[in-house]
Design goal:
This protein is α/β, with parallel strands linked by helices and 124 residues long. It has a single domain, classed as Rossmann fold. The chain contains five helices and five strands, in the order βαβαβαβαβα. Strands 2-1-3-4-5 form a five-stranded parallel sheet, sandwiched between helices. α2 (35-44) packs parallel to α3 (63-72) and α3 (63-72) runs parallel beside α4.
């Protein structure tokens, strides 16, 4: 059975890029464009993802608050969360760390580095 990754990203180009490269590695990528849609999915599914990848800046709730909710919910608290940001501000890095994120990565990123992080988190 394919391992599932939840991608919370509203930018179509990033959705396509990540889905393409993770698909080549036989991962199933579920895309949600808002944190609210991701929360709804996590609450309703019996097939939790192995990893959650979220952008910081999303319509509505941001990715840092999504991570905080994921990490404080007993159902999802053990799922690794990778936070992506198009800006490398200490404010966002600190927020990601305080929310319990497992990794913070700035965009644009090298796809090889991104894949290595995902593979590493899949083995944790």
């Amino acid at each position: 059975m394919k391992k599932t990754i939840l991608l919370v990203e509203d930018e179509r180009a990033i959705q396509v890029l990540i889905t393409y490269h993770l698909g080549k590695l036989n991962y199933n990528v579920i895309i949600k464009e808002t944190a609210e849609a991701a929360i709804e999915y996590l609450q309703k599914t019996d097939n939790l993802p192995e990893i959650i990848i979220t952008d910081v800046l999303l319509p509505g709730m941001n990715g840092i608050n999504l991570c905080r909710l994921v990490k404080t919910d007993p159902k999802t608290q053990d799922i690794p969360v990778v936070i992506l940001s198009s800006v490398d501000y200490d404010f966002y890095r600190q927020g990601a760390e305080n929310s319990g994120a497992d990794y913070f990565m700035t965009k644009p990123f090298r796809i090889k580095d991104f894949i290595n992080i995902i593979k590493k988190l899949m083995t944790v």
